[in-house]
Design goal:
Layout: H1 4-56, H2 64-71, E1 78-81, E2 87-91, H3 101-114, E3 118-122, E4 127-133, H4 137-203, H5 208-230, E5 238-241, H6 242-255, E6 261-267, E7 273-276, H7 278-296, E8 300-308, E9 312-319, H8 347-358, E10 362-369, E11 373-381
Parallel strand pairs: 6-8
Antiparallel strand pairs: 1-2, 1-4, 3-4, 5-7, 8-9, 9-11, 10-11
Helix pairs in contact: 1-2, 1-4, 4-5, 6-7, 7-8
Length: 384
């Protein structure tokens, strides 16, 4: 079996070799194109020489070679002009369109831009003509061949990049999923023991209020364990009132937070129904609110508002904390990325996965200013 390091080396070797091959093809194509273009130029210069001999030689001279040279030009479009730049002759152009003056003038402009003219000097009468020509159809097609190769190279590089990126993401997801399930398993064992101890406390006639508070915390731990166990599997979504669910999660964090934080919850409607997995969605809300508390360092304002936009529901969580630099707005959702001294950097990446993959919604940093605060926006589809 190959080690991970060897696999990476093989991947890079394949990429580098592929780029070298494509670069070599591009260079050879360009070199061939230039040689072919020079050959066409040489042919046109020979053609110009044939025209010159026609005008300067004796009428009884043998013109068979010149006539053959001129008649053999079947593939290079050309236009001959006089000293006043008026068109006198043309060849290898569209046989129908060439009867239109505008077409000939347009072709002449193309030829002037592509190649320098070849001067034909007629000694008799001291007259000059100019042969303009453009690349043959074959050379034109060859000219775009490198462009096609570059596009193929870009496509090839994009496919490789997406392949490696998807592999990396898949490996990360597998790691986080495994860790989440193992965490759920590890929490489950002491939970069972705690529930047993609660029953023992009841038998020992311990104060009921104390037992109720302990049960609340044990139930909370059970919810957390259930949340971890659902990571990596397809959670069941049911129609729930998102206002009530969000309010419960918001108030749960509020009840366990500093009194120096001002919590505000706002929703015009009391009932808005959305397809939810309550346990996972509540986790997202709690995680975002706790992050806001951390950003404010235990003192400030947090507001949560729910807006019903008929087809979708928007949940905005705003704080007046430290803010997030603009270049980190996307990075904060990457697994393992964190700006905190403690933590694994899983909270926001899991929140994004829960909202976007499990609930087909969207979560973004809507706005953030350093020293002024941050607003997270969650968008979910309405249940019709």
């Amino acid at each position: 079996m190959f080690s991970q390091k060897n696999i990476q080396l093989i991947r890079w070797a394949v990429i580098i070799t592929s780029f070298i091959i494509v670069a070599s093809i591009l260079w050879n194509t360009y070199d061939f194109f230039q040689k072919f273009k020079n050959e066409e130029r040489a042919k046109m210069e020979i053609l110009a020489g044939a025209f010159e001999r026609f005008s300067t030689s004796d009428l009884n001279a043998d013109f068979s070679l010149e006539d053959k040279i001129i008649s053999k030009n079947h593939n290079i479009p050309m236009i001959i002009t006089n000293e006043k730049d008026s068109i006198t002759e043309w060849a290898n152009l569209d046989s129908i369109k060439s009867y239109k003056k505008q077409y000939l003038l347009k072709q002449l402009d193309i030829m002037k831009n592509q190649n320098d003219p070849i001067v034909v000097s007629h000694k008799k009468g001291n007259i000059q003509q100019f042969i303009y020509y453009r690349d043959s159809d074959l050379l034109t097609k060859l000219k775009y061949y490198p462009v096609a190769l570059v596009l193929i190279l870009v496509l090839f590089a994009s496919v490789i990049y997406l392949f490696f990126k998807s592999n990396k993401v898949a490996e990360q997801n597998k790691l986080w999923t495994g860790m989440a399930k193992e965490t759920a398993h590890q929490i489950g064992t002491p939970l069972s023991s705690l529930m047993g101890w609660i029953e023992i406390l009841r038998i020992e006639n311990t104060d009921e209020n104390t037992i109720v508070e302990i049960e609340k915390d044990v139930d909370r731990l059970q919810i957390i364990a259930d949340r971890f166990s659902k990571i990596g599997s397809n959670p069941v979504l049911k129609k729930h009132n998102i206002v009530e669910t969000t309010k419960n999660s918001f108030h749960y964090v509020q009840s366990r937070s500093s009194k120096q934080i001002d919590f505000k919850f706002k929703s015009i409607k009391e009932e808005i129904f959305v397809q939810l997995n309550i346990q996972l969605y509540s986790w997202v809300i709690e995680n975002l609110v706790k992050n806001a508390i951390d950003a404010m360092e235990g003192k400030g304002k947090i507001s949560l508002s729910i807006i019903d936009n008929s087809k979708e529901v928007s949940i905005k969580i705003t704080d007046n904390g430290k803010g997030i630099p603009k270049n980190l707005h996307h990075k904060i959702f990457t697994p393992g990325f964190t700006t905190k001294k403690r933590g694994w950097g899983l909270g926001l990446s899991l929140a994004k996965r829960i909202i976007e993959e499990y609930h087909n919604g969207k979560i973004i940093v809507q706005k953030s200013e350093i020293g002024k605060g941050t607003t997270f926006l969650i968008t979910l589809k309405n249940s019709l």
